[in-house]
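In response to reviewer comment 3 from the previous cycle, which asked for concrete evidence that the modeling workflow produces usable outputs, we include below a single protein chain processed end to end. The sequence was submitted unchanged, and the resulting structure tokens are shown without manual editing.
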Amino acid sequence: MKKGAARKKQKWRKNKNIPRCTTTGICCEEPKWDPKKELTKKILKKFLMGNEYPERLAPKKAKVGTKKANTLPAYQPVTFFMKISLRFNTSLTSVVYRCFRLNIHPIFIASIHKGKVLYWLKSPDLKVFVKDLSKLPPPEDSIAMEYIHAKYDFVYKENEKTQQIEKSTWFQLNKYDKDTPFFEYCIPTKAHETILSVVWEE
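The workflow returned the following structure tokens.
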């Protein structure tokens, strides 16, 4: 056996545990990064742990649009959802549903089609009583209704899409409940006349 061939054989024996591509058979020292595997509850929660998540993913303060003059809280779940959507190159709607299933942050979701609520979903950690909304128009004072009146066109600019509402907008108030601030973000689709409304507590 030639010296060159012997060296190659010896090198392969040292690296026999290196993974091989299933399609090409070529050895690679590092397995390919799989974004689907990385999108797990553990990683998402790490981003949500205040100072632990990367600076480029950290939420920033923003001002609310014309409806309210208050300042938004430091953390907004929708801002986080948008950054995850950009990082993994997926639609914002799919990220919202994915994070809802993982129970990353307590949110309320209302799916609206042609002016009526098709269904709604609520995180178990969001302690509210939802109004009877199925097959009915969304509340008149909701942000979703503003989009319906605007024929599903965008009503607010990008940094104004999160709007402050009251708890009583979407939820029932018991005798001793306070009408506390909530926030609503809508994802309208004009072509299909749909709106995905995301609501969360401050």
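Residues 11-33, 48-70 have pLDDT under 50 and may be disordered. We consider this sufficient to address the reviewer's concern, and the full set will be provided in the supplementary archive.
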